[in-house]
Amino acid sequence: MTNRSRSDGVLPSILGAIGNTPLVRLDRLVAHEACEGAILAKLDYLNPGFSKKDRAALGIIDAAEAAGELRAGQCVVELTSGNMGTGLAIVCGVKGYPFVAVMSKGNSEERARMMRALGAEVVLVDQTPHSKPGQVSGEDLRLVEIKAREITAERGAFRADQFVREGNPLSHYRTTGPEIWAQANGEIDGFVDFLGSGGTFAGTARFLKAQDSSIRCYALEPEGAAAMAGAAVENPDHPIQGGGYAMDDLSFMRSVAPDGYLTVSGDVARKTAQKLARCEGIFAGFSAGANVAAALSLLRGDLKGKTIAVVICDSGLKYLSTDLWE
C-alpha cells in the first residue's frame, strides 16, 4: 500500500495514518465475565475514518490505480453502510477523485453527515416498506445495489465494489494480519470477525493461518441470519449495521475456510458494546460488540484459557442516533 510514513516521522498525508492501530488486552471485561483466557482487541476505530474500512478503501483505490482501472479525476461510486463510504471519502478526497456514496436510509444518520463533511455526495435509498430504521436487511441492500449500478453507468464511474475487489482482503492480508501477529508476538490461538463483505475475515485469517495453521478462525453472523453457515434465514432484520445481510455467498470467503461459524443476537452485541465502553473505555459500535461477545463465548467453550484476537470495527460515535447508547 502507498502513502506510508516518511523517514523523518512526518506523514505526507492522512492516508499514512491508516493502519498500525493498537492491540489491547481486554482483561477487565474478561474478568468481569468470569472467563478464562485473553481477548486482544485491534482498535481499528482509531483509523482516520473511525473504522477498519479505511484499510479496504485505500487498498481498493491503490490497486485500481496500479492496474490502470481508475483514471485521473474519474468519479468513484460505492454501496456502503457508511464505514466504507467514509474511508473512500477520505482516500478519494486526498487523491482527487469525486466520490458518490450510496446508502440505505436505514443506516445511522451520523454516517451520512460525516461522509458529506468529507466531501462525498451521499445518495440515500428508501428502505423496503417492511424494514425498520436502524435495521438494514438484505432486501434493503439490493435496492442500494440497484441505485449504485445506475449511478455508476450514468457517470461513467469506477465502482469500488468492496464485495469483489481483491484490494479489500489484500489490505487486511498485508496490514491487519501482520500487525496482529507482530503485536501479539505470535501468541494467538483464535480469531473471530463479524462478516460484512468478508474481506477482513478472509485477509486476516489467511495471513494468520499462513503463520500458524493451528490458529482457529471463526466467522460470525447475526442470530437468525446465519446464511453463510447454511442455516435458514429466520430473522434478516437486526441492528448490527455493516454486515449480516443474510447473504449466502461472499466471494472472499472462498479463499479461506472458517474453522467454525458463530452467531450473536443484536441484543447481546448491544449489551457487550456497552460493557466494552464501561469496563475498558473502548467506545465502539455494534459489530465490535458482536466480535467481543463471540470471543467471550469461545473463552467459555472451545477456546477456554486461550488467546483470541478480534477487531474493534468502528466507533460508537457513529451510533449516537440509534438505541445502542440509550
Description:
By secondary structure, the protein is of the alpha/beta class. It has two domains: 14-48 and 169-325, Rossmann fold; 53-159, Rossmann fold. It is built from nine helices and ten strands. It has helices at residues 27-32, 53-67, 83-95, 109-117, 138-155, 167-183, 199-211, 266-280, 286-300; strands at 23-25, 38-42, 76-79, 99-104, 121-125, 158-159, 190-194, 216-222, 260-264, 307-311. Strands 1-2-10-7-8-9 form a six-stranded mixed sheet. Helix 7 (199-211) links the parallel strand 7 and strand 8 (216-222). Helix 2 crosses helix 3. The chain is globular, with a radius of gyration of 18 Å. It starts with 22 loop residues before the first strand and ends in a 15-residue tail after the last strand. The mean pLDDT is 92.
* Order of helical and strand elements: EHEHEHEHEHEHEHEEHHE
The class by helix and strand makeup works out as alpha/beta
Number of helices: 9
Indicate the low-confidence ranges by residue numbers: none
Distance between the termini: 39 Å
Strand runs, count = 10
Cα-atom Rg, whole angstroms? 18 Å
> Which sheet architecture does the biggest sheet show?
6 strands, mixed
Q: Which CATH top level class of the largest domain fits? A: Alpha Beta
Tally of individual domains:
2
In spatial order, strands of the major sheet run 1-2-10-7-8-9
What is the mean predicted local confidence, pLDDT?
A: 92
CATH topology of the largest domain: Rossmann fold
Helix content: 25-40%
- Tell me which CATH architecture of the largest domain applies here: 3-Layer(aba) Sandwich
- Percent strand: 5-15%
What gross morphology would you assign? globular
